[in-house]
Amino acid sequence: MNKKKEFIPALGYDWLTGFYDLTIRLTMPEKKFRTKLIDEVEPQNDETILEFGYGTGQNIILAHERNNKTKLNGLDIDPKVKEIAEYKIKKLGFGITLDLYEGATFPYPDNSFDKVFSSLVFHQLDAETKLPCLKEIYRVLKPNGNLIIGDWGKAKSKLMRFLFYIVQILDGFKTTNDNVNGLLPKFMEQAGFKNVAEKDFINTRIGTYSYYRAIK
Ligand SMILES: C[S@@+](CC[C@H](N)C(=O)[O-])C[C@H]1O[C@@H](n2cnc3c(N)ncnc32)[C@H](O)[C@@H]1O
After folding, report:
1. Which of 3, 64, 98, 178 has the CB geometry, 3.0–4.6 Å to 183, for a possible disulfide?
2. Nearest residue CA, atom 9 of ligand 1?
């Protein structure tokens, strides 16, 4: 493996990762935003689907529960979250493959997946990392494959903008400013995606969570 790229852990600091699930449960409408994400992904029988940045496994588990005939892969950079997600998945007896990578090249050949989805990851990537990651997603998607991203988007009210400062203090302003400025779709287009659109959003206690879609 090459030298690992620096990354922001799930809750901003490595020692907080064990509290991630509890924090999300307390600060977000968890069932609502994750269910809606999987509604957007719509896992079908025999489809190959990748979750980029699976974290503690909450979305990928939900995707498997929605359709256990979908072939699910997860990719993350942090061994600590892999351990947490793997523990849950093993306990449930689900057949989901979780991979790690060093932060540059995804460990999959070109045109591997029908769909790639991702939630709450891009606001943790700086501009120099967002675009290469989107290009890797583009590379591993099959032609006409779908990208679904759920992440912090342009605040839909002054209150949402104010509340989002909580996330920015934890995760830093450098990586989160692009999100709150509504620039994620621009990055997706720059990576080569077409039909890029913000499909929907949910206002939460800590900001506006938006759903984006695009096609390779
Ligand atoms: C806030 S957590 C989101 C976890 C999960 N997707 C969710 O919806 O709860 C962000 C995740 O992105 C991962 N991450 C950060 N930088 C990354 C990178 N460069 N490549 C892949 N994953 C990354 C972190 O390890 C963490 O698991």
Report:
1. 178
2. 55
Which distant-in-sequence residues (6+ apart) come within 8 Å of 110 by Cβ?
139, 140
37 within ligand 1 shell (Cβ under 6 A) = no
Helix (H) or strand (E) holding 146: strand 141-152
The string of DSSP codes covering 81-127 is HHHHHHHHHHHHT---EEEE--SSS-SS-TT-EEEEEEES-GGGS-H
pTM across the whole model:
0.95
Please compute the mean of the pLDDT values over residues 35-39 and round it to a whole number: 98
The mean pLDDT value for 33-43 works out to 98
Check pocket membership of 129 for ligand 1, CB cut-off 6 A: yes
Convert the pLDDT of each residue in 121-159 to its tens digit. 999 999 899 999 999 999 999 999 999 999 999 999 999
Which residues have CB under 8 Å from 42's CB, separation 6+?
none
> Quick check: CB of 101 below 6 Å from ligand 1?
no
The finding on whether 70 has its CB within 6 A of some atom of ligand 1 is: no
Instruction: For residue 29, count other CB atoms closer than 10 A to its CB.
Output: 16
CATH H superfamily, domain 14-215 = Vaccinia Virus protein VP39 (3.40.50.150)
- Measured in Å, residue 154 CA sits from the centre of ligand 1 at 20
- Count of other CB atoms within 10 angstroms of residue 26: 10
